[in-house]
Amino acid sequence: MKKLLLRLSIFLVVLLALSPSGWAAKKLLTPELVTSQGQIVPGTVSRVRWRPGSEQISYLRNGNEGEELCVYDVATHRQRRLKISSDAGVNLDTYRWSPKGDQILFEGGGDLWLYNLASGKTRQLTNDPQGDEEPTFSPTGGRVAFVKQNNLYALNIATGQITQLTSDGTPLILNGKLDWVYKEELADRSTGRAYEWSPDGKEIAYLRLDDSPVPAYPLIHFLSTHVEFSLQRFPQAGDPNPKASFHVVSVDSGKRYDWTPPGDSLPIEYFGPSFSWAPDSKGVSFVTLNRNQTEMAVHLWNADSGTNRTLLVEKDRYWINSLRPPGFLGGGRFLWLSERDGWLHLYLYSPQGDLIKKLTSGNWMLDHPLFSDLPMFQYGGDSGWVYFLSTKADPRERQIYRVRLDGSHLERLSKEPGTHTLLLSPDGRFYVETFSDYKTPPVTRLFKSDGTFLATLDAPKNHLNDYALGKTEFVTVTAPDGIKLYARLLKPPDFDPRKKYPVIVGVYGGPEVQIVRNEWGVTSLQDQLFAEHGFLVWSLDNRGSWGRGHAWETTIFKHLGRQELRDQLAGVNYLKSLPYVDSHRMGIWGWSYGGFMTLYTLTHAPDVFKCGAAGGPVTDWKFYDSIYTERYMRTPEENPEGYEESSPLDAAGNLQAKLLLMHGVDDDNVHLQNTINFIEALIRDGKSYQLYLQPGEKHGFTAYSARLYLTKRLLSFFENNLEPEGK
Q1: How many CB atoms lie within 10 A of CB 693?
Q2: 15 pLDDT above the threshold of 70
Q3: 98: how many CB neighbours lie within 10 A of its CB?
Q4: Of the listed 533, 583, 650, 699, which one is catalytic?
Q5: I need a labelling partner for 45 at 20 to 30 A (CA). Which of 11, 88, 205, 575 fits?
């Protein structure tokens, strides 16, 4: 009997090992693990920088004593940790190299700190109660510029003397610093700095923003004994915008030069958030844009002589995406990005603004990581090569390419399918990449500039194989008009094609974002938790999303939600065609634009989904900021029909599905006003809903407790509402 039981046990173990899933022998995810996912997938190094004047790479990594700043030598392949005293109060995340690579600038406690590599000592540069922001070294390394109380300052490192360069800064007058709407919508959160040193270190060009015309938006903070109240300058669609002007100031004399638009200038509403100096310091280039964001002029201004030239003009009937200034080369030539042929490509221009050569072409585009300060193209040394990321191989990937300045020899350097990033060394001899795909967490590697692999800088060990994870599949859906749409399907770890499964559709759908990509995180651990609990998880990139050219985006013009919903429903119809999908148990959820799309779908296709959860949703575009909304919708006065059609608020009475509304009480991006007005509309029309308000959190939740509760609440919501009929 014992032998029989032993043989039976061995048989079951072998059967389990040989079974297609084998998932039951592995650990299960929990909301706690998903919320603190670093326990399963540690992150790779961050803040990767090349040390000037050397062939060394710096980065932050998690060590035994917490976050560490390390330097890696390319020649010796050795890493060393910089021993920066924690007593100094510096924030390692803010580190910046000096031009010679001998010192590092930090922020910390509202002050500035300087670390000397030779001595290993850190000294405090400023000691102000007001707080110093956005510091940078001068190109010569002898000074540091920074912003304090919305004024520009310059500090002499050798003497410690601080010179105030502007004096009109107030809470509403910002010199050298972006306000909320400029940083969010024109700079894509990549920087808050709005000034640039001249190459000779003698002058600083800066943007001045006057927020006094902008309406004040009230924000209430409830987590205190006495409720706190603050005002945010937030222009909603059709409101007055910040009044912007462009200036140059001499660091030595303090003399300020004010740029005046030429008489034949295009209408100006916005200035580009960044600008570039000519290599000889005899001119600074910047872009201006009209309110509809359809006409852009590129200016080159010599403040000392007063010379002002328009280098080129870009126009688009819908909107212009790229606001980056020219990238100057030797002799005054410059590189320029344009979507004039429908795809973001690279052009070479003469110093006079005449087109020399279109360097890239085809039905693909250059790109860079969202919300990143990495440049769109990189040119190092005198190699004659320009390096960039593009969608050429596959719109769902980002591969590294280079091309000669004469437009010849376009080469793909990265090898593996997936998503790569690029940071070229100043001399153009090497580059660092971060690589991932949908099943490989990010790794950081070093290459020669021709794509020859040199070393792996960081490949953190993960524990994914310990857990029962579902299978991700990439799917192509054909829309009714023949357009191919890219989607992703996650199946449960114990998937059985003979069963019927409920579906959770995760949606974003808005411009500038692409969620179906071959990169780590396309399937999140939260998605895996849903799959573990028996759900299929689906996402689709509709027209209007990023990565497939300007024509792909502009189908949403003046009618946000309409085309997006048509494409999302094409994905739903595909799901319904699958024998293992229970079309009566489908839910949808999303955050931000995805929250808008959730509500738009539930109110404009009310019989498709059984339930939906909308987080931080825009409920009517008249509530959102001017720069983003008017880019795609124009003003409410210009496009009243489009605003009405795009409004879930006006269609709230159509709701049939079970609904969960979620919002951060302190949200300064998509204000709580959106959800409050939607609740009023639901009550007016007698519709039921669930509400989850998170005190103390903004648009994206950061506190562990809030993120954990959100995950649990979503899981419970879908489990309660997508059970089989009659259960």
Answers
A1: 14
A2: no
A3: 23
A4: 699
A5: 88
What are phi and psi for residue 581, nearest 5 degrees? -100, 130
Question: Is residue 670 very low, low, confident or very high in pLDDT (cuts 50, 70, 90)?
Answer: very high
Q: Given this model, what pLDDT does residue 265 score?
A: 84
When mean pLDDT is compared across 21-30, 83-92, 574-583, the lowest value belongs to 21-30
159: three-class secondary structure by DSSP? coil
Q: pLDDT tens digit string along 76-103? A: 999 999 998 766 689 999 999 999 999 9
- State residue 725's pLDDT score: 52
In angstroms, the CA 469 to CA 27 distance is: 9
Interaxial angle between packed helices 704-721 and 525-532, expressed in degrees from 0 to 180 and rounded to the nearest 10: 30
592 in catalytic set: yes
How big is the chain by its Cα radius of gyration, in Å? Answer: 27
> Domain locations in the chain?
48-131, 464-721
Catalytic residue, from 592, 626, 646, 647: name it. Answer: 592
Nearest Cα residue to 528 out of 487, 470, 473, 488? 470
Q: Is 699 a catalytic residue?
A: yes
pTM surpassing 0.85? yes
> Which superfamily does CATH assign the domain made up of 464-721 to?
Alpha/Beta hydrolase fold, catalytic domain (3.40.50.1820)
| Tens digits of residue pLDDT in 584-601 | 999 999 999 999 999 999
The distance between the two most distant Cα atoms of the chain, rounded to a whole number of Å, is: 101
In 160-212, the DSSP E strands lie at 162-164, 173-175, 195-197, 203-210
Confidence of residue 724 (pLDDT cuts 50, 70, 90): low
Spatial contact of 636 and 239, defined as CB atoms under 8 Å apart: no
CA 708 from chain center: how many Å?
23
Mean pLDDT within 163-185: 98
- DSSP state for residue 323 in the 8-state scheme: -
Which pLDDT score, from 0 to 100, does residue 66 have? 83
Task: Kindly report, residue by residue over 304-347, the tens digit of the pLDDT.
Answer: 999 999 999 999 999 999 999 999 998 899 999 999 999 999 99
Number of H helices, E strands in the chain: 11, 46
Amino acid letter, residue 373: D
Those residues whose C-beta lies under 8 Å from the C-beta of residue 460, and which sit 6 or more positions away, are 41, 42, 43, 44, 441, 443
Render pLDDT for 414-429 as a digit per residue (tens, 0 to 9): 999 999 999 999 999 9
Which residues are bridge partners to 88 per DSSP?
none
CA-wise closest residue to 526 among 14, 23, 33: 33
To the nearest 10 degrees (0 to 180), the angle between helices 593-604 and 562-576 is 70
Cα separation, 536 vs 240, whole angstroms = 46
Decide if 496 is catalytic: no
Q: How far apart, in whole angstroms, are the C-alpha atoms of residue 721 and residue 413?
A: 48
Length, in residues, of the chain: 727
Inform me whether the pLDDT recorded for 162 exceeds 50: yes
Active site residue: 58, 338, 667, 671, which one? 667
Residues 35, 711: contact at Cβ < 8 Å?
Answer: yes
Residue 4 in tokens:
């029989």
Position of tokens 């070294």?
Answer: 137
**Neighbouring C-beta atoms of residue 543, cutoff 10 Å:** 19
For the cut 80, the answer to whether the pLDDT of residue 727 exceeds it is no
Q: How far is CA 19 from the centre of its chain?
A: 41
Q: Is the dihedral of CA 158, 161, 164, 170 positive or negative?
A: positive
Beta strands in 354-410 (DSSP E): 355-358, 366-367, 377-378, 385-390, 399-404
